[in-house]
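Structure tokens
________________
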Amino acid sequence: MAVPMTADAISLRSNRIYAFRVAERAGGGRVLLDAGPDYEGAWEEAVGQGYALGFAPERVRAVIVTHGHADHAGLAYRWAEAGARIFALAPDMTALTSGDGWREYQARRGRDELVRHGCPAPTVERLEQVRRERSSALRWRGAPWGSVAPAVGDHVFPIEGPEGERSLRIVAAPGHTPGNLAALVEETGELYSGDTLLPGRIPSAGLHFHSSTGTPRWPSLPPYVRSVEWLASLPLSRLLPAHGAREDGVPLDPAAEARRFLAHYRRRGRQVRAALAGGPQTAHALARAIFPRLPEERVGQAMTEVIGHLDVALQEGSARRDEEDGLWRHAPAGGG
């Protein structure tokens, strides 16, 4: 096995931006994995850490954004202004160019979705209040369209490693968002996972909607599980996530994190199926049955997870969905 990479990193609050050296034959400079969040003073912190690592912002040739969330894409426009090309998988490009407008659109569609799944209006209002309080800490200005280019699965960036040139391969891993990606150093099996796999946490599959109003929600948990299963099948050596990377140099085991994710998925799936056996129910009722002591401000998170498992059951044909009085209720397929 080749000597592991030691990619430089910029830390902005809980986010880690990985900075790779572009191979000299490709012109040198830097390529970043993720742009980072935009909060008061974030750009100055990023630039200062870059200088400490030996590069000015103008030396950043490309920024690969793992997915279209504000904490990963918020500074994309600043790197673009400094001359970088911004890359993202096509399904997340609108998020990068729309910024806060996209975040608000997704939130509005998400509220409507929770209502259709039985969430009471006062709870939806409380969830929106909490969301606004949290999102106000991160600005999100869209990057210019001309600065954003579609990354393609298996796109390779030539980078410098400790023993010569290495290949940083972009791999599509839809689930956390429709255009979620990860990056793999082929020679060493190091996986830069973004938010796909996080140590000690189970990332949310979320609720995602296409840019056209009226189009149905994109069911995210089924592809998320397939992405993790596929990553787990690769010969990986180390996990380098966007959050929770160890500071002591002890490597994280990607196989162990994938097993933990999949074990949680299977355990929660059994809980949802058991609750569903009671007859037609909304996702809100199922979430309350599975998490009876959950505080109100976390109901949306629980419902999102339940909705994901209902998507799995619908695709498998083990559940059905009926609409009555404007609400969606689910039941076992063939049941009452």
User: Anything to note?
Assistant: The radius of gyration is 21 Å.
